[in-house]
Specification:
Blueprint (H helix, E strand, L loop, with lengths): L5 H30 L5 H41 L15 H8 L1
Keywords: Membrane, Transmembrane, Transmembrane helix
Length: 105
């Protein structure tokens, strides 16, 4: 994976993780009830563990996807700002504290 494709890849992974997290939030309880019909104590234990794992995934995946999308956008922004060949080509929106003091004197 090249540096140029990294922001795009991170954004796509973030979108995928967010969609999977959203699907888990929306459909996991109904799918679990329809698919899993525990009839013994062992199956109830397994269903309980599976519900805990699904609850953790439902809680973590959607915010993780949003964070990956935001990270990809920031990476893209920083990449565009640092695109210039020469340091003078790069936009300057802030100054080092000692530069600001030298200008005021």
């Amino acid at each position: 994976m090249s540096i140029e494709s990294m922001p795009r890849t991170v954004i796509l992974w973030g979108a995928g993780v967010a969609v999977v997290g959203g699907l888990l939030v929306a459909a996991a309880p109904q799918v679990l009830e329809a698919w899993w019909a525990p009839n013994t104590d062992e199956w109830y234990s397994a269903a309980g563990i599976f519900e805990i794992l699904i609850a953790i995934a439902r809680t973590v995946l959607a915010p993780l996807g949003a964070a990956l999308i935001a990270a990809g956008v920031v990476m893209h922004y920083v990449d565009r700002r640092l695109k210039g060949d020469n340091i003078a080509d790069r936009p300057r929106r802030w100054r080092w504290p000692d530069e600001a003091q030298n200008r005021n004197q």
